[in-house]
Amino acid sequence: MSVALVTGAGRGIGRACALALSAAGHRVALAARSEAELRAVAAEIPGESLVVPTDVTDPAAVEAMYAAVESAWSPVSVLVLAAGAGASSPLAETSDEEWQRMLDLNLTAPFRCLRRALPAMTSAGHGRVVVVASVASKRGEPRIAAYSAAKHGVLGLVRAAAAELARTGVTVNAVCPGYVDTPMTDDSVARIAARTGRGENEARALLARRQPIGRLVTPDEVADAVMLCVANGAVNGQGINVDGGAVQS
Hints:
The chain has helices at 12-23, 35-44, 59-72, 96-124, 145-165, 183-196, 200-209, 219-231; strands at 3-7, 27-32, 49-53, 78-81, 127-132, 170-177, 239-242. By secondary structure, the chain is of the alpha/beta class. It has one domain (3-178, 218-242): 3-Layer(aba) Sandwich (Rossmann fold), CATH 3.40.50. The longest helix is centred in the middle third of the chain and has 29 residues, at 96-124. It is globular. It starts with a strand and ends in a 7-residue tail after the last strand.
């Protein structure tokens, strides 16, 4: 039975990925900052799970996370990097602190997690890595310069890693969601409402209309794309859009 590790597993897309991986027969280690959220997800999972509270922006915590999984089970063979956060500011008002926070969580943390997982995967001759990126990895939008830069960067990381590892049995892919019905989108709705004076229902409908399908993407729809990358060894180096057709590629 393979060992999967999901960061950002306490809610939203990470939770959906953890449930899908467990249903497919993987042992699933759950990592996020909130132990309470992780334990709630562990209670939902049909198979074996391991709760590993972790701040993935802390290098020592990342090492401890892997050590805990390896001690309890064995090295990670499926890595889903779903931890992330957004921020919204006009470019001229984006602080150094906001810029650095977006890079630390959305780019540097995935790099460190991927780097730590690779030796065991390449030694075994098999591994699957999937990064939850964003359509902001593919295009620029107003007011999200720091977030978009980090997400463009993480897609570059995915592509470079996939090219480097292609003959090792390890694949590296990204899924690039649009606006998903998650707590992160709830935060975006609240920011839009505060900035524009719109009600939250109107702000949510505005984001739903950004997708050509006219609704928010569901976490399960993103998890389905993640599972394709896990199952199919010929899918490598891709940024798979899950956005209702907003970015066609």
